[in-house]
Amino acid sequence: xxxxxxxxxxxxxGVRRVISRQLADGELLNELHHVAEDNLNRxxxxxxxxxxxxxxxxxxxRNFAAMGGQDxxxxxxxxxxxxxxxxxxxxxxxxxxxxxxxxxxQYFSLDSAWGTWVGRWTAEEARxxxxxxDYLVVTRGVDPVALERARMAHMTTGFGATAEEEAQHKxxxxxxxxxxxxxxxxTRVSHRNTGKVCTDPVADRMLARIAADENLHMIFxxxxxxxxxxxxxxxxxxxxxxxxxNFRMPGRGMPDFRRNGVLMAKHGIYxxxxxxxEVVTPTLxxxxxxxxxxxxxxxxxxxxxxxxxxxxxxxEVVKFEEQRDRLLAREAKKRELQAT
Length: 340
What we know:
Blueprint: H1 7-11, H2 25-31, H3 33-46, H4 81-95, H5 97-108, H6 112-138, H7 144-157, H8 163-167, H9 173-197, H10 201-231, H11 233-245, H12 257-266, H13 272-286, H14 297-339
GO molecular function, one term: stearoyl-[ACP] desaturase activity
Protein name: Putative acyl-[acyl-carrier protein] desaturase
Cofactor: Fe(2+); Fe cation
């Protein structure tokens, strides 16, 4: 883990006077267009075609009451409460795609390679909600009525910058590209670990397929953000640090998000250590944030602030795990007493 005091040692070999460069969003889009085009072509060359219907056990399906069958009841679900919470959270997150498309279109534009990417990314993301919902409805994994009501509520609220973020002008291209670089990786981790807790090979295969998509999306965004760091180092490090210091998953605002998020963290689907060690740290390392020598004094100061935050985050990870271990131990003891 990086410590604030380590930074001068890390960069002293290449310290030089750097003049900070600042570009507006339109200029950044133009300057980075070739990077977007190259990475779009790369993505199209490696992306695997797949079809949601191939990942759903249709033979388990049957009619609900409106079609002469039986409506959902809790005993029909083969998922644990933890798996249900994670699956619902993941699906409702994917459901909000129209909001994400709007944000992407606004900050990445719908012109040239940028527009082609936004369209392709949106089409690929749409498969995720399709296959997750089909699986949950066919297998009766969760209450479909409650799920639909939650979808209506979450999509009505939508996704976008908070009033606080807008007041701080934290809604530009660089913040958007930095955010999705981390968020796509975080979503990959969440999907992959959700598949493991479902204890169903069908669900595990399906979520592994979704996670593979998220990984390719992350690579596109991470490469573009890396190019932005080369182009406007100070401007980009400010965006990256702001995202890391204020990161929130896109599911914020959905019904029961806090409750489900706590369950997911408590049982290792997406917890603070995973966030730090599987999302934040490898991404910063890929960009060589703490080895770069192209920041001005202002950029180096911002990097120092980021290092301080990471040290604080590491301490919070340890504190969370200590609290979680105590809680899980109490729950295990309680179950043991109830069983005697």
